[in-house]
Amino acid sequence: MKFTLSWLKHHLTTDAGLEDILDGLTRIGLEVEGVDNPGDALKSFRIARILSAAPHPQADKLQVLSVDAGDGPMQVVCGAPTARAGLVGVFGAPGAYVPGLDVTLKVASIRGVESNGMMCSARELQIGEGHDGIIELPADAPIGTPFPDYAGLDDPVIDVSITPNRQDCMGVHGIARDLAAAGLGTLVPLTAPVVVTEGPGPDVRIEDADGCPAFYAQAVRGLTNGEAPEWMRHRLTAIGQKPISALVDITNYMTVDCGRPLHVYDKAKLSGGLVARKARTGETVEALNGRTYTLSEGMTVIADDVAVHDIGGIMGGAHSGVSEATTDVIIECAYFAPDAIARTGQALALTSDARQRFERGVDPAFLDDGLAIATFLVQQYCGGTASAVTRAGQPPLAPRTIAYDPARAETLGGLAIAPDRQKAILKRLGFTVADDWRVTVPTWRRDIDGPADLVEEVIRIEGIDKVAPVPLPRAPGVARPTATPQQKLERRVRRAAAARGLDEAVTWSFVSDAEAAPFGGGAWSLANPISEDLKVMRPSLLPGLLSATRRNLARGATAVRLFEIGRRYLAEGEHPTLGLVLAGNARERGWRAGKAAAFDAFDAKAEALALLAAAGAPVDNLQVMGEAGDAWHPGQSGTLRLGPKTILARFGMLHPTLTKAFDLDGSIAAVELYLDALPAKRGGGGFMRPAFAPPALQSVRRDFAFLVPAALSADALVRSVRGADKAAITAARVFDVFTGTGVEPGMKSVAVEVTLQPTDKSFTDEALKAIADKVVAAAAKQGAVLRT
Q1: pLDDT in tens, 365-393
Q2: Model pTM?
Q3: How far apart are CA 572 and CA 117, in angstroms?
Q4: Rounded CA gap, 215 and 197, in Å?
Q5: Taking a C-beta distance cutoff of 8 angstroms, is the pair 640, 663 a contact?
Q6: Which residues are within 8 A (CB) of 708 and not within 5 positions of it... i.e. 6 or more apart?
Q7: In whole angstroms, what is the distance from residue 602 CA to residue 681 CA?
Q8: Which residues contact 256 (CB under 8 A, 6 or more apart)?
Q9: Which has the closest alpha carbon to 423: 431, 413, 414?
């Protein structure tokens, strides 16, 4: 929420400077998000008088002025038709930056005549819309004075972040109350003026008491809707609101000043009385933002006998909005139920200043006073005669009383505060404190629900920085590790991935419906997402990584190697997972390497096996099986399994339709490694590597070439070979695959290197032959024949 320093001091009598106020706001829990002083940008502009104005010798629409800004006459070329001798305006000297033009002034020659600066318009200084002529100030304006000082523009704008529970601070008066309670001044009481009324009040009634418990209204007849007063327009402009007309500006001002949204109807555009009722399914209303909304049953609206004119508590309708021709109005001051406002706003995806306040909860006791202040301002600046007030319904005003023990400030809040001091703080915040410490909550504090909330109020005003830090108790001796086995596993895998040259990414846990669909769809969706692109809890880490890959490739990256450790969200729960994407060139072109080479399924498999090994998985026992799923390229993907059912990882190339859906060109390799599927470590040894113990005897390598059916996977053959003699064979790998001349159709030649490791004595020729026979016999079970 934004407000100016002078606006705050309208409600707070204080000698505190800006820095003290900013520190105080943050200290009491109203975080300052930013401070901007528009006057700082205009410090170089001064008040000046035009001494003379003569036609430009080379241009009909230009004049040559003699300008005095306090330092003597200076020559200025000006194109404003209103420039004339004697006029007092705003002058920018060479070196001044003009925000509306985005230029820095300098001495220049314009059509052969030297110009030293410029006389400025309101739009050029970004303080108004006037552009046809230069700013005209009163003749007695002090020449040479900086314009921001004269115009009151040296007024810092403070932007405060209001948490959802602090509905009382959605108005400048409420913020001033908090600062006064913190000792930074005295709160100026908000008194309602006496409005002279004539005639009966407008016809209003309630048919939806759940959505609109109270509906107060007052009519003003015979008014003139002109321009709001300068002070009000200045305050609204300073916080980024565009002044429209006196009637509209008054309601906007009340919303920010008092945290009390109101609405004004042009009575001539209404048919009959106003009623707060439930919308009927299919009803539509064109709102003041120019958009038409289709309403549904259950939404609270304000309507007349013919149509809906207001989405209750959120935004008024364009049809009954006021204009310059408006002479008779009805001012609405209603209380809308916060829950109903929130549901309607979410359903319509419609937000407004009014909704922000009503869904947090406005002060239900401020209807009469809020209406009186608004009516008084309307009469003061628009004239007219006010009717009596019509009061339909009853706002929720039941008192709430909490039994409080001042000792809880120390036991719960950690700060010993004298009871008298606590009582003074609570009273300054608007609470009523009885002698028996029964505390009555003010109507504007909907968030206070128990003694703990009162402790919070006392502590934040006294100063949470005064709470002494207390270390947690520590058991004697060496501290025990705090990381869980799952956390240790993730750390190990993360380090291994980074060591292999992969870059870690952190993506959203939410994706769109379309992104989740290729991975089985999302089991969990948000009812009120911040965006349709962030609606579904991800069933896979790959959508986020693919989006990140697209952004990197679009910015010129030739190779993308991304990984992420996070959670997948399936119907049965969440699953820790590592996702990995390889895109672009695995090898860049070069005079030795030749052409650039893209990543392929074998690159993805290598990464999956390396990371599984780092995680402690028994990679030698894993099986490569089948295709990975619909999201993966058939024939170029697979799974790594521990047994036929336990899938530890999916790897390979992604399906071309999937990469096209993510607007990615070329082939993309990927891996999904399921950390929760890894077998638990045995023996409690943790993840420490075993001590390096090289064998005493040298290993022996033997090569075997087998003719096998073309459909047989090399993995199945290698597994059979490795299991032929588990005591002697320590490794087996494929080093060549051949088809063509000399190999029968439907067959292929697979060459396997087998590593044999003796233990207590070297192998004899007989022992080696026996092992070789076992290898050939094991391969034969897979349909392999030793090639001769």
Answers
A1: 999 999 999 999 999 999 999 999 999 99
A2: 0.70
A3: 72
A4: 19
A5: no
A6: 717, 747, 748, 749, 750, 779, 782, 783, 784, 785
A7: 28
A8: 1, 3, 171, 172, 236, 239, 241, 353
A9: 431
